[in-house]
Amino acid sequence: MRVANKTIYDAVTYNLRNRTQEMNKANEIVSTGKRINNLSDDPVGLTQALNLKSAISNIDQMQRNISLGNSWLASSESALTNVEDIISDTKVLCIQMANATIGSAERLSAAGTVQNMVDEIISLGNTNVAGRYIFSGSKTDTTPFSSDGTYNGNDNAFTIKVGKDTTVEVGSVGDAIFENIFSTMADLKTALETNDVGGIEDAMSDLDGHFDDISAKISDVGSKMNRMEVKEKILEDLNFANTDRLSQIEDADYTEAIIRLEATELAYQAALSSSAKIMTQTLMDYME
Amino acid sequence: MSSLGMVLNIATSALAAQQYCLDVTAHNIANVNTEGYSRQIPTLQGKQAVQYQGVILGLGVKTEQVTRSVDQFIENRLMQEKSNLSSSQETEKYMQVLEGIFSENSETSISSMLSDYWNLWNDVSNNPSGSSERIALYEHSVLISEQFKSLGPNLSQIQTDITNAVTVGVDRINEITSEIAQINVEIVGMEGNNNVANDLRDKRNVLVSELNEYLDIKTFEQDNHSLTIIAVRGCTLVQDDSNYELEMGGSNGDRVRWQDSGGNYVDITNYITNGKLGGWLELRDEIILKYELDLDAMAKEFIWSVNQQHSQGVGLEGFSTVTGTYAVTSTTQGIGIPGSSGAGLDYYRALNRSSFTGAKDISTGYAGNETLVIYENGTTVSITLNGPADIDAVITAINTDLGMAGVPVTASKTADGLYLVLTHDNASSGSTFGVATTSGNDELGLDQSFSIWTYDSDPANPPVENVINEINSSTTLAEIEIKINGIANINASITNGKLQITGTGGYTFGFSNDTSNVLAALGINTFFSGSTAGDISVNSTIVADKNHIAAAQIDATTGEFASGDNNNALAMADLQYRAMDISQWTCDRINGNTEGRVTTTIEDYYHSMVGSIGIVSSSISRETEFNEMMVNELNTLRNSVSAVSLDEEMTNLIKYQHAYQAAAKLITVSDEMLNTLISAR
Fold first, then answer.
1. Which alpha helices (DSSP H) does B219-287 contain, by range?
2. A3: pLDDT strictly greater than 60
3. Which of A172, A162, A174, A176 is nearest to A221 (CA)?
4. Which of B290, B283, B258, B250 is nearest to B160 (CA)?
């Protein structure tokens, strides 16, 4: 084919431009560390990356929710365990006071001990996490129990979100847990004050029932904590998998990227040197 | 007899011919870098020989003509490819701007902002009475609104820039066609007496090539060698010595028009598909328009879903007064009816459903008369049901009338046979319809309702529930106003088409159980105002008081609501997983723009939208790359035929120089011979 001067100049311009573009692209990947720097670099990968980022952001949030839920459940567990201890202490007291050798004065003084225990249970019922009461249903701003044991909360337990369509009740309706205990304690106190051994024995058997209820509640809280732990583990694994996948899609493979950059540099230099040679060739150099 | 004079004559013709060839060589060398120049080749021919005393003798050389070395087929292909290249290069340039606007490499991308928005609702659900969580949600919502609002103008700015580019392009087209018309005149004049106007033809080719880079054209060379140029839709741009101008017109001055001989305008905007204009117009009226419409559709559905859920909830306190954000254009036309016969609400579809189940037992018919009206996709069907015997008669009557009207809605009954059910036949694709009953008794039990709870400032008085019922597609805002005014301790009014509700005597109020969605449609107790990417804002009620962020829901039986209740916040956070029915546009300049629908989450919708911008952009880049390669190949071909090679010209220079020297020698020799003859006496 006939090669005119313009053919050479055009080819040099075209090829050098292409080499520069390739080098620039390779450099962009190395210097940002990302495979995808523009939407058009890999649109399918980009969409996947965006979906993964949303998922990761959502998982992070769920982990925060679970961590908050755990602190509520842990506080519940510790408060309820204390209540359980108080109930068993009360039962011991009942056994002592039901003994026929005990006199009315000792029973009257025990009534004072029972009142202290009631106060302690009320204070445990008013347990809060960062100022939010955990036993007042969804009225988390309101102290659930007045000093006389009156319940001020409501019947809707506080819930948190741990996943799509999944919520967990981490707060409790205090009324349901404490109401019967308070009434038994009040009966016991009256029985002690009135030296009524039959009443003390009745209270003793009621306390057995309450002890079982609280134990059941504690194991309910415990099983929720287990569920949260499992959920947290799943989320952690998922987060790891997603982050790993995101990195595969988004991040540059440095070895490959640098080799590519070097290859494009080499190609560019070769093109420069051959262009410089060919452009200066002319017949005129050989004519006087 | 051969004479010495003959030698001199031959030598003279040779001198002239070589001189002439040197001129052409000089012209070629001079134009080595001229764009579109085709090298010229001098043609020499031996003069007609004569017979002289039985010998045939040549009479020297004569110059024939100068020809252009040109292959018109390659020229035409090159012009076409250059036109394609211009189109894709321009599109690529603007697509890069578009990619920048939707760049995902920043923290301010809509995508990450949406994730954060849902996360902040989670935070509110974790601490519903906490003010810092509410403020964080509010501040972030302002940011999202601003981000949406900045995208819209960014897109229309590109469109404006493109219109300006098209305007400049049209001016240049008119300059080119005017020049071509002048060159036509010169070529016709010059070639009339069998000359070839080489340089003028090159010049005309360059202009036609440039014109081709702006838009699609067809060219014909007439018998008189003038060039006729026709653009799309048969619009003549150049004929003989005249050019016909394009101009920008239309109501926005953004249409490309051509005026015919009768003075009528022909709008060719949608038909230009090649060249820079083709690229620009495709971008402006198809690609960017689509993303503008899609972005609006997404914003519209995002605002709606958030508002619809938000309006079901209650904040930390009741309202003492609240004003809707959406205005009706008519207070006496149905709020659920589209178009000019309705109230003109952006979200008139609020009252539409994919199915309705009646709340009244009509197994044995009903006492009065009823007229049922169905609104489906722009069609309205009125069905008169006068004292039917039983539910089956109602169903038959409805299905018969709807069948005749071709409306894809079917009536049936619940399994227990007590209640009427209306279902859209394409419910799976998210298609919905509206209903209205006109007797005022709601005999079919299809109407919807919401509750307004009123609260005395004295907490000793329990909340009072007031049900606003009998709401359907044809309910008017004036009717709602009257119903609300029927409630004690509350006053309703309409100002500038917006509903305002105010508690009187220290009473506050809240809303619950809105099955009609009318509160969200009127913008009462909503989170966002606006209905497009361009006008989304946080509802001024929330701007004024973050306590009105509705994290809680009013207890449907007691009317009470608690500070720590997070039921509505949980439902808000769940919206991120909800697949919604969102419009998706296909824009086509010739066949028009069509609105399709996809069912997907807001975030997935946005992600695939950004992905699709990337796909369009990368395919245009590939096209540009391919076109560049094609132009390069064809240019190489064209150069091999037409471009000047300095080496060749230098060789020719020496060739002609030597021939000239030899011819001069002939004259010297003749001179010497003549001298010899004269001195030999």
1. 275-282
2. yes
3. A172
4. B283
What 3-state class would DSSP assign to A97?
Answer: helix
Inter-chain CB pairs, A–B, below 8 Å: 182
Q: Cα A152 vs. chain centroid, distance in angstroms?
A: 30
CA distance A129 to A135: 10
Q: Kindly state the average pLDDT of the residues A35-61.
A: 91
Residues 508-537 of B with CB under 8 A from A: none
Q: pLDDT digits over A228-268, tens only?
A: 999 999 999 999 999 999 999 989 999 999 999 999 999 99
Residues 33-52 of chain A whose Cβ lies under 8 A from any Cβ of chain B? 37-44, 46-47, 49-51
Contacts of A49 in chain B (CB under 8 A): 104
Question: Percent of chain B scored above 70 by pLDDT?
Answer: 99
Q: CA end-to-end span of chain B, whole Å? A: 21
CB contact under 8 A, A57 and B560: no
Say yes or no: ipTM exceeds 0.85.
yes
Q: How far is A287 from chain B (nearest CA, A)?
A: 9
C-beta atoms surrounding A279 within 10 Å: 12
* B275-329 residue pLDDT tens: 999 999 999 999 999 999 999 999 999 999 999 999 999 999 999 999 999 999 9
**Side-chain-side CA neighbours of residue B146 (13 Å):** 7
On chain B, the residues whose CB falls within 8 A of the CB of A137 are 562, 564
What is the rounded CA–CA span in Å between residue B415 and residue B357?
Answer: 12
B412 to chain A nearest CA, in Å? 32
Which pLDDT tens digit goes with each residue over B142-188?
Answer: 999 999 998 888 898 999 999 999 999 999 999 999 999 999 999 99
CB-closest option in A7, A54, A160 to B115:
A54
Tell me if A140 and B115 make a contact (CB, 8 A cut-off): no
- Per-residue confidence (pLDDT) for residue B122, from 0 to 100: 96
Where on the phi/psi map is residue B497: left (φ > 0), alpha (ψ -120 to 50), or beta? Answer: left
Contacts of B314 (CB under 8 A, 6+ apart): B510, B511, B512, B525, B550, B552, B553, B554, B561, B568
The packing angle between helices B131-191 and B198-214, to 10°, is 160
Task: Report yes or no: B248 and B166 within 8 Å, Cβ to Cβ.
Answer: yes
Helix, strand, or coil (residue B643): coil
Show which of residues 85-114 on chain A sit within 8 Å of chain B, judged by CB atoms: none
Kindly state the tokens that stand for B586.
């296909």
A11 burial type by CB count under 10 A (0-12 exposed, 13-18 middle, 19+ buried): middle
pLDDT, position B165: 95
Its pTM surpasses 0.95: no
